[in-house]
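Reopening this ticket.

The earlier resolution said the output was attached, but the attachment link was broken on my side. Pasting everything inline this time so it's all in one place.
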Amino acid sequence: MGSGDDNGLGLFGPGSVTWRVHSEPIIALGGLRALYLQPAHPRAMAGVAQNSDFRTDPWGRLARTSIYVATVVYGTTEQANRAGERLRGLHARMWATDPHTGERFRIDEPDLLRWVHVTEIDSFLTTARRAGVALTDDEADRYVHEQRRAAELVGLAADEVPGSVAEIQEYYREVLPRLRMTREAAESLLFLSAPPMRWGLGYTPARAAWLGLAALGIGLLPPWARKLYGLPALPTTDLTASLSARALRLTLRALPRNLFEGPIYKSAMARAARATPTVGDRSTPGSA
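Inline output:
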């Protein structure tokens, strides 16, 4: 799995598939895909809608989520554990009401944590592969297995989440009967597609660019999810989304590296270079 037991190199380390996948700038598109997939779970959606500030501060929430993921992936073991402890503490204080049954529930229920975990790692992995990141089936399974360490940080046991791509698909088959399009989900999807833009960018080409990314994030959803949302689920949609994701990845990789090298990533590369002098030369820039 890499250097998971080395505090300086973190939970995964330079030999992991996780570092390889998350070094790709296109991984941010995977995060957007996950945001479009997660509202399909009514109970999870209720938990977010009743506790999150995503409507009043969408970009701040996105930034905080990105920093958390980057810390788990590229931070030291101590940093990752602290981030997980803070998140568990925050979730432990949050409750929501099921809009259909009226039942009160904690948002850190294992079923809800599992849904968020699976949709995230599936979205990161699926987006990377469809965008052209060369991963064998074995490497894809290794990524899913490695991410069990991330699941432990939010309070799940490693064996409570899928450990392979096949197990992810089996999980989706099991949970599908509980998924549906709700009013809250529809409102969330619309908000994600047209959020308030910062710095007056709502009347600039930035709005059109975001709409394009949103459409691509939706196009990368599994056909069953698009069908659930009442959206086209044709094979041509999958092909178009894959081609667009590949084109976007090539565009991003042509841009200067420092646009995507955040401080957490840079610190990880520096630690890895000190541990193994050639490690820093083998990775491509990360997104946080």
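Reporter confirms the inline version is readable. DSSP finds 14 helices and two strands in the chain. The first strand starts at residue 95 and ends at 97.
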